[in-house]
Amino acid sequence: MLDKVQHYRALDEIHAGLSKRKKRISPKYFYDERGSQLFDDITRLPEYYLTNAELTIMRKHVDEMTKLIGPRANIIELGAGSGLKTRILLGHVKEPAAYVPVDISAAHLEQTARALRGDFPDLDVMPVAADFSQPFDLPQTETPAVRNVVYFPGSTIGNFKNGDAMDLLEQVHSIASEGGGLLIGADLQKDVDVIERAYNDSAGVTAEFNLNMLRHLNEVYEADFDLDSFRHKAHYKESKGRIEMRLVSEREQTVNVGDRAFDFEKDEAILTEYSHKYTLEGFAAMAGVAGFSVKQVWLDPDRLFSVQYCVVV
Ligand code: AVI
What we know:
Bound molecules: N,N-dimethyl-L-histidine
Structural class: alpha/beta
Strand order of the largest sheet: 3-2-1-4-5-12-11
């Protein structure tokens, strides 16, 4: 349950987004319990190549990754890593000092931490409940760490606008600090049809995931969106190298959110997500500005996705 201050802060943010000439709502409102479940379902879709490609890379190259990470590193994951990728990594890191998952949802974190402690009984799991895009304090590890290595899988970096992604990488740079590293998953630019299919799957799960944001707002923020009168739209904007996901109003209508009303014209859209796709050069340039140098890049055989190890310079 969100506390009252957080609730009203979120409501203000939603109102501000819906008051813009081009309406938008932050992708963080996708992730209530149902939204997280739907995202999980997306990762298993045949069209959503990202997860499979990243897993293929992790399985094949984890030994090279952990060699670069070195022994007694403190592994800090941005997001609660209950997934297979995290387990592959943790199963191979040599004598990790600690594993620190950072996630805004304390409940989700606790669940993850419990499961990981069960599977890795010798690992010091030290969850931090925080918004990782803001500065946060690292816990003191019992075993002194040789270095901090931030793990940021899934191409979640792509959901941040370029300026915000830079800010986030700078924040990661200060966490990794001198001698530290960043192991990051970054989706790559490729054939437009392949990308667009990943966000317009034939089973309609991504559409449901997108529309679930409105259900979430109805449930938690006293909104009255009619889910049947909005449709999912995802298209790849080549000039920006990103998927843009929107919810489009099927008719002229007025929607209440808390104590405010918002008018929609027919076909007016709410922007709900960007998902940037990178070139290797573009990613290296962005990492460079944030103070990282890309040390090694691993690709899947179809060159769809990259996992990159960057070091603090
Ligand atoms: C979490 N993130 C990396 C996903 C992506 O591909 O940008 C979220 C997503 N949106 C639609 N499908 C998946």
